[in-house]
Amino acid sequence: MNRVVTHELIHAFDHCRAHVDWFNNMKHLACSEIRAANLSGDCSFGNELSRFNFGLKQHHQQCVRDRALRSILAVRKVSREEAKLAVDQVFESCFNDHEPFGRIPHNQNEARFAYRDFQNRDRYNANL
């Protein structure tokens, strides 16, 4: 349940922060789906192990791509090629955008570190 709520809250965060055009811009949708799959734990090692789908090299990135692609195909009537193109065009920047966490919270310990980073986000800001 935590994973699903986190996934949807990342979409809500994107909607508020980036003013995502969900219905007219496929790249916006792809970016939010990439971020949600990456940051929510959808592609954690434990989840992938339970699905009997795991690998070593670049597996997390491939899982994020696949889940984003499937999400787009579930909500839009577009071809697989169109959806894949949108994911590929925005993957690098969206995969590396870890806001609001600052890092990928792979487990409880990482989540605590992410929360600590959030609490200290303005600590060294010279502009304040």
Q: Which secondary structure elements does this structure contain, and how are they paired or packed?
A:
Layout: H1 2-18, H2 26-39, H3 45-50, H4 59-75, H5 80-95, H6 108-119
Helix pairs in contact: 1-2, 2-4, 2-5, 4-5
Compact overview of the structure:
The protein is an all-alpha fold and 128 residues long. The chain contains six helices and no strands.
What does this protein structure show overall?
The chain is an all-alpha fold and 128 residues long. The chain has one domain (2-119). It contains six helices and no strands. The model has no long low-confidence stretch (mean pLDDT 82).
Mean pLDDT: 82
Question: Structurally, how many domains make up the residues?
Answer: 1
Q: Any idea what the radius of gyration is?
A: 15 Å
Largest sheet: none
Please report the number of helical segments. 6
Overall structural class, as computed from helix and strand content, comes to: mainly alpha
Strand content: under 5%
Shape: globular
Poorly predicted tracts of residues: none
The total beta strand count reads 0
The amount of helix comes to: 55-70%
Would you list the SSEs in sequence order as H and E?
HHHHHH
What distance lies between the first and last C-alpha atoms, to the nearest angstrom? 38 Å
